[in-house]
Amino acid sequence: MSGGGGQGAARPSGALAPFRYPAFRSIWTANLFSNVGSMIQSVAAAWMMTELTSSHVLVALIQASATIPILLLGVFAGAIADNFDRRRVMLWAQSGMLVISAVLAALAYAGWITPSILLALTLMVGMGTALNGPAWQASVRLQVGREDLPQAIALNSISFNLARSVGPALGGVLISIWSVSLAFALNAVSYIGMIAVLMAWRPEAPRPQRQPILASIRVGLAFCWGSAPIRKVLLRGLAYGLGVAGFQALMPTVVRGLLHGTELDYGLMLGAFGIGSIMTALWVGKARRRFGSENVIGAATVAFAMALLAISAARSLPFAMGAAFLAGAGFVSAMTSLNVAMQLRSPEAILGRCLSIYQAVTFGGMAVGAWLWGTLADLAGQPFALRCAAGWMAATLALRLIAPMPTREEGRLDSVEEPHGNAKLART
Questions:
Q1: Are 85 and 161 members of one domain?
Q2: How far is 333 from 244, CA to CA, in rounded Å?
Q3: Residue 427, strand partner residues
Q4: Kind and range of the H or E element at 372?
Q5: For residue 65, which of 161, 130, 156, 112 has the smallest C-alpha distance?
Q6: Top-ranked range on mean pLDDT: pick from 130-144, 289-303, 362-376
Q7: Does 124 lie in the same domain as 44?
Q8: Hey, is 65 helix, strand or coil?
Q9: b/e sequence 222-231, b meaning 16+ C-beta within 10 Å
């Protein structure tokens, strides 16, 4: 399987155009199954921790085990992705997660799992995810033509949201008919497809120019700080991440407290969010080309703020699911637009570092937001916290005046050389 970026004489077009590239099609399919496996394991691990301990902190740490390593290790993972063959980095990460998940399944089946062992192993899987992320995102350029990069990013978002829609439900069914060990085992098996695809893939990629890791990180940070368009994207990602955390952090307690729902109702809410994301991702690229990133992100911000206000007043599950659908549409519109803006303005030689910095900033905003809105919910109730989060989202609309999204050609790059740790950029 050769690299997708150079394939195809005719220029593809449309939301599904990246599927014309065999490399992208195979990796997307394998990644979908891997994402479903990860969601199944996440549900199983959280459920198992509730059986092992009554500590809310440990249960919360299990829920955060996928994001904590990205916050702490993401920038290092970006430097690794730029210093080594990205395909090999992904292979090592996927193989490591397979082994850890298999060990987790075996220990669960034998009844040898303790809270500390469960937390340690799920954090190790999260470390694999953190290592894999920048290399995977940076490799999308090697899978499709440059003109199809925005559509490819949107389709990868669809893959994740498809998994988020069906994975939790599958995990609940597997736990009910068998045990958490089967869920862990299926997650281990889900990595095999991705490993096989990566082993067969032979992209045409420039040889990475290696540097010491800390020096590489400094180069990435210096470039992001020195690029006005990227600084705008990072600020917008931070602000948006802080606001959307209101939905993600409070939803479980909203379902249980305000709606008096069950685990199934929570799954339906997540499913509605995922469906909204999937349906919107199919046309967000066309909307961005027609109206521009600024207008798309502005509309997405308004949609998410309205969803938060609706959920704060919801007293029935169907109404809340409609709000969750709207939130999913707003979420994927803004996050896809920010990701595309970052990719198109990041040099190939330091792409992994730029994307890891973007992820760290955005996830950092979500982490701060989760703490902030959770604290407000404890002090003044969930409806008040949700309305404050909606107010924050509305306030971020002022950023279009202070830090407007880059225009179509602003900061876009054609090539980059990095002979001595200093990025030399060729602009379009």
A1: yes
A2: 12
A3: 413
A4: helix 351-380
A5: 130
A6: 289-303
A7: yes
A8: coil
A9: ebbeebebbe
In a domain, 210, yes or no: no
CB atoms within 10 A of CB 176: 9
pLDDT at 302 over 90: yes
Give the count of domains, the chain: 2
The pLDDT tens digits of the residues spanning 353-370 come to 888 888 888 877 887 787
* Domain C-terminal end among 141, 174, 203: 203
Give kind and range of the element (H or E) at residue 31.
helix 22-52
Best CA proximity match to 394, nearest among 279, 290, 293, 298: 298
Statement to judge: residues 141 and 265 lie in one domain: no
Residue 26 lies in a domain: yes
What tens digit of pLDDT does each residue of 264-292 get?
Answer: 677 678 778 878 888 887 788 788 888 88
228 and 346 fall within a common domain: yes
Is 236 in the same domain as 267? yes
**Same domain? 220 vs 163:** no
Q: What is the CATH number for 158?
A: 1.20.1250.20
Q: 202 - beta bridge partners?
A: 2
Would you say 223 and 63 are in contact if contact means Cβ atoms under 8 Å apart? no
Burial 119-128 (b: 16+ CB within 10 A, else e): bebbbbbbbb
pTM exceeds cut of 0.85 = no
Cα–Cα separations (whole angstroms), residue 407 to 81, 240, 345: 28, 19, 11
CA 191/CA 194 separation, integer angstroms: 5
| Token pair listed for 202 | 């032979």
Amino acid code (one letter) for 19: F
Q: What is the mean pLDDT of the chain?
A: 81
Buried b (16+ CB within 10 A) or exposed e, 373-409: bbebbeeeebbebbbbbbebbbebeebeeebebbeee
DSSP string, 293-356: HHHHHHHHHHHHHHHHHHHHH--SHHHHHHHHHHHHHHHHHHHHHHHHHHHHTS-GGGHHHHHH
**Range of 386's domain?**
216-428
Distance CA 27, CA 23 (A): 6
Degrees, nearest 5: CA angle 165-234-123:
50
Asked if residue 53 is part of any domain, the answer here is: yes
